[in-house]
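Feature request, filed as a ticket because there's no other form

It would be nice if the structure record came with a short human-readable summary line next to the tokens. Right now we just get the raw output. Example of a typical job, pasted below so the devs can see what we mean:
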Amino acid sequence: MIIATPDANIGMGGPAMIEGGGLGVYPPEAIGPIGVQRRNGVVGLVARDEAHAVALAKQYLSYFQGSLGEWEAPDPRLARHVVPQNRLRAYDVHRAIEAIVDVGSVLQLRADYGVGIVTALVRVEGVPYGLIANSTHHLGGAIDAEAADKAGDFLALCESFGLPVISLCDTPASWWVLTRRPRRRCAASAACSYSARG
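Raw output as currently delivered:
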């Protein structure tokens, strides 16, 4: 998991290498800025500053250390009004997540990449879980290639640490994945996301 501050840069080469390759002259801060890297899925969490980065690292690692003895459940009445009665309307999936998991336990990963899927570490009654939920605000809930890649990576993380996964699924169909991107890549992404790993 890469945690970075807004002023960080992550790049394969520096200004001299880029200029030497005939690609132009760039200042160091223009190479791999976090604003770009978070949208590319490189950065999992963006911290306000270094102290916040340490706090995020501790929080992230805590989900792999077992259950908590103290927790607070959300008000169950919150869940009643999350999904609109008119099923053609989009809704905020983050509100749906917060309505079913422990208060303050959501740690969303790679929020700016594959925005059709929310991936988060959460707790329910103090027990850690992975959670995936598709967002109806992006493509009406259809899962595109980036969302499928992100979900597949997250499911592999959860499997490697033995975390059970909660899935909130409200998607119109899977046709979008196969019609908007090269078929081979998208089919592989979708298969990876939803296959049982052995």
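Something like this underneath would help us a lot:
The chain is about 35% helix and 15% strand.
The mean pLDDT is 83.
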